[in-house]
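seq as requested:
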Amino acid sequence: MPWQEVSTMQLRTEFVLLAEQGGNIRQLCRRFEISPTTAYKWLARHRQGAGLTDRSRRPEHSPCRSDAGTVAAVLALRQTHPAWGARKLRRRLVDQGQIMPAVSTVHAILARHGCILPQASEAATSWQRFEHPEPNDLWQMDFKGHFALRSGRCHPLTILDDHSRYNLCLTACADESSLTVRTHLVATFRRYGLPTCMTMDNGAPWGDTGASYTALDVWLMKQGIRVSHSRPYHPQTQGKDERFHRSLKAEVLQGRNFEDLHATQQAFDRWRGIYNRERPHDALALDVPAQHYRASPGEYCEHPAEPEYEALHRVRRVQDGGRIHWQGHTYRVGKAFVGEPVVMRQLTDERYLDVYWSTVRIAKLDLLDHTSLSGRKLP
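struct tokens:
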């Protein structure tokens, strides 16, 4: 019969007594279902008077155990950045010139000193990541959820480079108006240049339904920037910026109450430097974003020129209410283009005309029904 935990000592004692009385060792091993190695170990201990209880398997000496200096460095950095895990802590200490053990050892140090919650590892999820191949191919822009200050409220505006995860803008704003966004975008463009494309969600001020162009869309397109919007209720489209928001909350906002926008911006500026230049990023093989980012050669233009069209006889300027006139009829093409020149282009079916602002199709006219379809989601 197999040995049960409750009768282990009893079985060991019985085995030793039978063996000492001249029993056949191999036969007893089969009957007690133990190996000869185990049998001779217990016999040797019994004859030495060492007892039959289990001994500690912990080694008397641990020459490879982390030295006190390494443990102190890990715990000190963890205290400075309590949201960082073993991988980030180890990489940052290596970058500072420390000789460090494996990530598993750093994790063990944290666990041994009560720095890791049991549910932390359970919450880890593996994601398939996609990123654009070059810096400035795509910038993601969004407002993080606003929060109360002792004086007023803060609306954090964030802009992240898709390729490098470099944070280009982290600003404590008093509101989410289009003017506020444009003001900070101009400052960002002047420092880092222009991206090829920008993506944002469908909330204010970049749009409410995701169907119509906004004044901010047109302003960006005048700089030669392609504009895209995430699908409504699909925040994963801007997953990198959403992940940035989680880090911002965990490492800056959690458990703190700021006096005003100025104090909040000071905290943002300090953390932004850490995020871009010190904090190892898992998606970058534990490099920091600054190692993967470079400024764009595209220059911001204060007064961009109007689009030029070859077929001048088909050009119309958008009037109040976002309408144009064509062959005695009025068609809607979008309020965002008021004052802008647009051009009509004939389709194969002569019943329809496409309306373009620069190289962007913004409306489709039905010359038979005298109606129009306009917006970002034209068929």
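The mean pLDDT is 86.
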